[in-house]
Batch of 3 targets.
Target 1
Amino acid sequence: MGTSPQTEHVLTLDCPEAPGIVHAVSRFLLEHGSDIIDNQQFGDRRDGHFFMRVRFAATADETATGTLRRDFAAVAAPFAMRWHLEPVSTRRRVLVMVSRYGHCLNDLLFRTRSGDLPVDVVAVVSNHRDHEALVTWHGIPFFHVPVTAATKPDAEARLLDLVDSFDVDLVVLARYMQVLSDGLCSRLAGRAINIHHSFLPSFKGAKPYHQAHERGVKLVGATAHYVTADLDEGPIIAQEVIDVDHSHTPENLAAIGRDAESAALARAVRWHCEGRVFVQGRRTVILR
């Protein structure tokens, strides 16, 4: 007899710490004929909160995912779990926003095209046309949405229309040099990631790498974080740092910074889309 085909799923959950959580989850998977492939968990004793990510193989049929979700709801309820269950093959639909600096956009498009990132970039929005040809070459719809103080409400309404029409799961600000309104940040809470050109806290204002050079920094870094109404204060997902020294010019630092920004942003997008990021207040727990 042949082995029944199986589909891999990922279950993520978090809830207040309590006895029996792991046992309840493991028993559920066993009762549903599932095989655990990978499991990470973390119990935060300081906050009394528990986090878990399980990758498992379950019998493949058209109703398997729906059945698992329906049955797991009964397991989750007594523990007040926040949880999510989906096939590993699920690909997030991503909308990228960019201004004139194109290194992060180019890196994301390359990683997506090469299969390195488990996402589908479904649209790119920019307040400039600098990268329209690149985006079009990748076969992705490009939308030029100029932004001024007077047109900002209309521009943000246009963005939300695109998010809805393209059924977007995640918005990525790939060096998008516009501050989002508090209302838009609230609408995109938990599904918008920004890249900041510093290992926070940062040099604020114009020419950050020139400021860094003047201060004789020894590290160049970048921080990827969730977008919130508090500018550059959202929960941090990934950071990248690269050693530098007195011999680096401001231009050298900027080039090194572009590498750090691209790496940190790609890592943050990957972890988010693989269900590895849990937001807990102002910080995150990453189960890698």
Target 2
Amino acid sequence: MAKELVFGHQSPDTDAICAAIEYAYLQNKLGYDVEAVALGTPNEETKFVLDYFGQEAPRVITEASPEVDSVMLVDHNEPQQSVSDIDKLTVTHVVDHHRIADFNTEKPVFYRAEPVGCVSTVLFEMFNEKNVEIPEKLAGLMLSAIISDTLLLKSPTTTDVDKKAVAELAKIANVDAEEYGIKMLKAGTNVDARSDKDLIDGDAKSFTMGGKAVRIDQINTVDLNDVLKRKEDLLKAMEEEAKAEGYDLFLVIATNVLDSNSEAIIYGEPKDAVEKAFNQKVSEDTIALPGVVSRKKQVVPQLTDVLD
């Protein structure tokens, strides 16, 4: 059986990197020759997770076709979020929890997607279904990914399946989910140490909505002012990247992980679509997003509905 690579999306978050490690482990146990890789370096939160559980970070790639013919995707399916040469590769497996858009294959594909808070929750189910034991270290990665994606089970994307997974994984990983989760989330909120470019790209995803190229980034913080005080510099960086990459609309969403509120910095057009999507006014290139914490459930569908 030929070797395959498994990876999450570009600008990887904790779930994208941990899920690749988890799925590679499962697939290797099931007889596949699979290596977990990443499409970017781990962010500060993910570094905390990997260090805490003693897990080496996957190597970073920019292309896959020089190494393999086939790949497996986790935590994404849209080609613009994937490896740069995805059009040269055969996708054999996908495990995801997002919308399905612009995705097609020439050959039959294994596709598992569920509307849960985190793809590691789906993988937790798959381990149990295949009767593959989850080691302590891997349980720690799964737990961390779910905490990250659901903001410690406070996000509206959280389901009972996520809650059950967190309870069981915390036991296997031998940690207190609440105590560990707060430490982990705070580890990823030191924005002062990050460059403008890193902030606008750190957790960014690209989407096509109504023929518009839309880029949406999310920054977790414990104080929105830590991000907003850099608005002018961030707007300059967003403008440069939008012009270079052809984005029509660029949103950088700052999210307070403690009180579950957000505010977005906006570059490009149509800004009136953003106002309509969130029933709020854009003022000086920012818009208040009270109660918004989930890009997947509270931002992408709303913008898509307006732009389409």
Target 3
Amino acid sequence: MFLNHRTPVLPTPEQALRGRPVPEFTVPSRHTVLGNPLVGPYPEGLEVADFALGCFWGAERKFWQTEGVWTTLVGYQGGYTENPTYEEACSGLTGHTEAVRVVFDPAVVSYEELLKLFWESHNPTQGFRQGNDVGTQYRSAIYTHSPAQAAAADASREAYQKVLTASGHQEITTEILPAEGRPFWPAEAYHQQYLDKNPGGYCGIGGTGVSCPVGVAPAEG
């Protein structure tokens, strides 16, 4: 979406934009594809996962197309600015990633299966970029909501690194951090389910072509 020819650098908390105590916009009430509410509280029994894998337009579609996902929404996470706008996030002065919040039913799709989709849907070795999208907001990240999620994410990164290395790829640069203390700030209405509203719109999502060995459902029988 934006091609930045400068070398991206994360701001410090002191350098980051201050933001605002309330958002400048209203988030839609329901998902345009799944029909469920975007913002919680969510029904009992569902779990939340947060992923950043480049431009959030295409990333969100990957997850809403997955059986067992109850709702998805895009936003900004991992930085310092409160209630940022898209323009602020793209300036590189908020420290946020373009993130996707995935609300899912663990009885239908496991967190490990979502991790598999995450790894295979982008190139996690590129640092502050995804393809031609350059900037700190495009970095790869997983923000975990429990010790179990953190352990699964760490194990999946280790397993995927082995197959990436065997295929000639570089080191994974994905950051794995607790979601606690890193609020998810929902993005503007026009970003939510963007590729449903604009089927021919830009999608910068593309993987390495290397299959991830984690999150595979056990064989029956």
